[in-house]
Design a protein that fits this description.
single chain; 218 residues; alpha+beta; five-stranded antiparallel β-sheet; 5 helices; PPM-type_phosphatase-like_dom; PPM-type-like_dom_sf; Protein phosphatase
Length: 218
Amino acid sequence: MQAGGFTEPGPGRSHNEDHFGYDLPAGVAVLADGASNRPHGEVAAGLAVDTILAITRNHHGADHTWLESGGEPRKLAQLANQALLAHTERNRRHRGMGSTLALLTVAPASVSLALVGDSPVYRLRDGELLCLGSGRGAYEALGERPRVRPELHDLDRASGDLFLLCSDGVSSAVDSATLKTLLQGAADDLTDTARHIVMQAREAGGEGDASALLVRLR
């Protein structure tokens, strides 16, 4: 598994409400976008990502990914949701904050996704682009209610699969055909490709925070 990402705040914005991270040994990549029209989105997104990575780093075998060790993406999304709710109970000034979630977890023969909100995941395989994340999960947000209902996807895994996790600052500005072209031309340095995707969103007139996180499976 190889990963790289890039993020940039929207034009004229003083802070970025997108956050992403990954843990290669755990086989986990995650991206979060502070829910629009809610306060303290940068806090919510950062807490969601940090919570997930802290759990997956500490709960996988030395020779096994988190998913292979029995991890469940649904439960992980719920734990991130609980972390946001607990934070707002302790910090009342952050009440009302929320976040999307795009979570990718891998095992030797499978890939599992948990999606909350409108941050989609794309998979490029053999020249075909598949978009995941347009179901009921798009109407959910972490930190909104006691239980979150993520949209779940279980996929087979093939060597060379290339996944894109992105915020709506990318998906709303860059059409699927352009994303496919950019992903087909992905360089060995995935961070550089992620930067090109974000710059394409800017050139297309995207005004929101824009983030792209790429994961290539070996």
